[in-house]
Inverse folding.
């Protein structure tokens, strides 16, 4: 009899059995009040019994702060948050509003019609070696739309390689030795590319990533361009869609936490009818918008590109300008922004 | 690989039998269910189900490549670095060499601006022998607006490449390479796409042109959603055949008028956009006929428009080019640029479609077009 194994007094055991509670599971789901009434004991005693029953009868001394196995205290989480590394976007203003860049351990969603440059920039920047203040990692690029352009990657990689060597030269007053210099070819080599052709493959790949990354620990960034595409074409069963997407989002979050890597998803833009007018919003509906930790929307304002933080648990909802140049994402340098800056100071 | 059969995946025989018994035959069926649903349906423990799902996932996952291997593949397999030159110097430079292979390129513009002329020119370029810088292949031209004119095509060819088109048999050969197809309805178009797929994959066809995509749906639907949904299948189909055959696909799109700018704003932008709204915008505010869902699936979007009498080609969406606009005109030899350097356009100007100052009388050359 399971109840017999509980580290409680014989009298209480007797009461339990006479009241018909013989298995642990029959006790653990009860409320203390109910149990105290059934057994005619005090609520404190009842709570004690339930606690023991929930722990499966084993009496291990777990400290009070770790009452739930697997949980952390907020203090531990703070340490983790502080040590979390970030991937720079190459634009100081963007990094500023993002608190230093795209955060590892988190899922970030970017909304834009096309954000190829920003995504590639991240895939290149994640490789900046540790001695240059980067992560020295690799990137996985999951292409669902077929819009990946190697030519563009090469352009951005070349620009990044040049910048790294000049910044090294200026800080060390000498040309960098060739072994620590990154060649554009190396950067391209470190972008692992998967082409996904159906939503089944997308789900399969997200499932498989767990295994793949545990074999390739140097991966620090997973990009999905875009999460939306296959789920917007030819998908009649919307309930199924929501379920599949929800499952995928959970798995991606797990990945981000487990391997301390950043997950960046691109979402498409759609129009939504609210309050009598059509407005732009991100695709996949309201339930999906809960799935990501951070959400950044890229849009045009006047003649400038802006990034807006639409949702984030830790960052202020604000926007910042940026520019897309042939060498990638850079700070915006127009009059409009200078005015903003003077206003801010 | 979504339809890969579970019994061919090398799972343990007992698990395979359970899947088969519950009529879950392929990866799509299995992965559309959560692990708990599978447990319930199959009556197997969580451990076995997770192992099976992991295994199926691994089998179905696409192969791993790197950006470097992709680039080497492109360099090895393709002439001209994977681009079809348009022979418009500035535009070619902006697009890294021309119309890219393997993706969709869209031409948007008001009626009579020169979209079809552009398509004619590209058809000739793709069919030219390699010694003349062409792709030496067949062209499939899907003419949905019944505007294809062989006479005009050969005229453009003869003006630009007299050495090829003046020989009678060569002209015949060139024109013989361009297959014009005129589907009457959406279903006929769908059917033809299936056939085209085969000829694209056998690598004889080097260019696919669809003029125009919007004509398909503008006829038989009202507005909004039905338009998008009816094309959903075609969009993904076209994208996938472009990619697997590495053939450039050029699609034209019509414009329709649009009465307010609200759709171009996010809710958080609020009234901000209103300030910059000027009256001139109401003159002729046009948007591409196929909506935002379609816009997502084209990789390069070229807008042809006219502003105060001057026609422009604008690189409105391109992963490799800055937002440039090139003034052009249409002559008897096709489209030619007036300025090779182009003008860099700032902000949303690049994606705006103007149709102002259409000079009907001033330009004789215009008259012969459409």
């Amino acid at each position: 009899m399971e109840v017999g194994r509980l580290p409680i007094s014989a009298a209480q055991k007797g009461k339990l059995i006479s009241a018909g509670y013989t298995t642990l599971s029959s006790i653990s789901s009860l409320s203390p009040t109910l149990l105290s009434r059934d057994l005619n004991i005090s609520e404190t005693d009842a709570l004690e019994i339930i606690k023991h029953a929930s722990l499966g009868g084993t009496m291990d001394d777990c400290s009070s702060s770790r009452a739930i196995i697997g949980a952390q205290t907020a203090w531990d989480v703070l340490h983790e948050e502080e040590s979390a590394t970030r991937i720079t976007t190459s634009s100081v203003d963007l990094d500023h509003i993002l608190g230093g860049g795209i955060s590892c351990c988190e899922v970030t969603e970017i909304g834009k019609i096309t954000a190829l440059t920003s995504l590639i920039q991240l895939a290149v920047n994640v490789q900046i070696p540790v001695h240059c203040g980067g992560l020295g990692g690799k990137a996985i690029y999951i292409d669902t739309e077929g819009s990946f352009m190697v030519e563009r990657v090469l352009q951005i990689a070349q620009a990044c390689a040049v910048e790294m060597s000049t910044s090294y030269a200026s800080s060390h007053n000498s040309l960098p030795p060739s072994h620590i210099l990154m060649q554009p070819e190396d950067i391209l080599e470190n972008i692992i590319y998967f082409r996904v052709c159906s939503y089944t493959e997308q789900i399969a790949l997200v499932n498989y990533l767990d295994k793949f990354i545990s074999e390739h620990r140097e991966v620090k960034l997973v990009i999905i361009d875009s999460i939306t595409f296959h789920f917007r074409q030819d998908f009649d069963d919307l309930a199924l869609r929501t379920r599949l997407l929800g499952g995928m989002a959970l798995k991606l979050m797990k990945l981000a936490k487990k391997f301390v890597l950043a997950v960046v998803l691109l979402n498409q833009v759609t129009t939504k009818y609210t309050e009598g007018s059509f407005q732009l919003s991100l695709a996949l509906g309201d339930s999906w918008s809960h799935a990501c930790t951070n959400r950044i929307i890229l849009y045009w304002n006047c003649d400038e590109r802006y990034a807006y933080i639409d949702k984030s648990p830790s960052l202020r909802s604000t926007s910042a300008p940026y520019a897309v140049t042939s060498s990638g994402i850079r700070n915006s340098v127009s009059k409009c922004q200078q005015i903003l800056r003077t206003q801010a100071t | 690989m979504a339809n890969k059969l579970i019994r061919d995946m090398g799972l343990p025989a007992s698990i395979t039998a359970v899947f088969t018994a519950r009529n879950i035959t392929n990866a799509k069926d299995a992965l559309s269910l959560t692990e708990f649903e599978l447990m319930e349906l199959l009556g197997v423990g969580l451990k076995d189900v997770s192992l099976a799902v992991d295994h199926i996932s691994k089998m179905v996952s696409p192969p791993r490549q790197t950006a470097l291997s992709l680039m080497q593949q492109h360099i090895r397999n393709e002439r001209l670095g994977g681009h079809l030159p348009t022979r418009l110097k500035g535009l070619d430079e902006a697009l890294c060499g021309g119309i890219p292979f393997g993706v969709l390129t869209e031409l948007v513009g008001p009626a009579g601006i020169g979209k079809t002329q552009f398509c004619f020119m590209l058809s000739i370029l793709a069919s030219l022998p390699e010694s003349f810088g062409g792709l030496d292949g067949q062209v499939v031209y899907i003419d949905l607006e019944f505007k294809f004119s062989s006479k005009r095509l050969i005229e453009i060819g003869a003006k630009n490449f007299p050495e090829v088109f003046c020989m009678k048999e060569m002209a015949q050969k060139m024109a013989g390479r361009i297959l014009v197809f005129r589907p009457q309805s959406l279903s006929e178009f769908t059917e033809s796409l299936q056939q085209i797929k085969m000829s694209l994959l056998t690598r004889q066809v080097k260019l696919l042109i669809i003029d125009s995509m919007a004509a398909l749906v503008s006829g038989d639907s009202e507005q909004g959603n039905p338009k998008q949904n009816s094309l959903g299948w075609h969009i993904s189909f076209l994208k996938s055949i472009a990619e697997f055959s590495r053939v450039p696909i050029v699609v034209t799109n019509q414009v329709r008028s649009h009465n307010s700018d609200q759709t171009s704003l996010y809710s958080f932008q609020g009234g901000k956009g209103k300030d910059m709204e000027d009256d001139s915008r109401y003159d002729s505010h046009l948007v591409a006929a196929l909506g935002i869902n379609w816009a997502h699936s084209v990789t390069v979007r070229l807008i042809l428009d006219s502003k105060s009498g001057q026609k422009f080609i604008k690189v409105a969406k391109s992963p490799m080019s800055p937002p440039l606009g090139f003034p052009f005109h249409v002559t008897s030899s096709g489209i030619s640029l007036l300025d090779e350097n182009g003008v860099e356009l700032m902000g949303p100007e690049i994606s705006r479609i103007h149709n102002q100052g259409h000079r009907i009388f001033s330009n004789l050359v215009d008259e012969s077009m459409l």
User: Anything to note?
Assistant: The first helix of chain B runs from residue 13 to 21. Chain B touches chain A through 64 residues (CB under 8 Å).
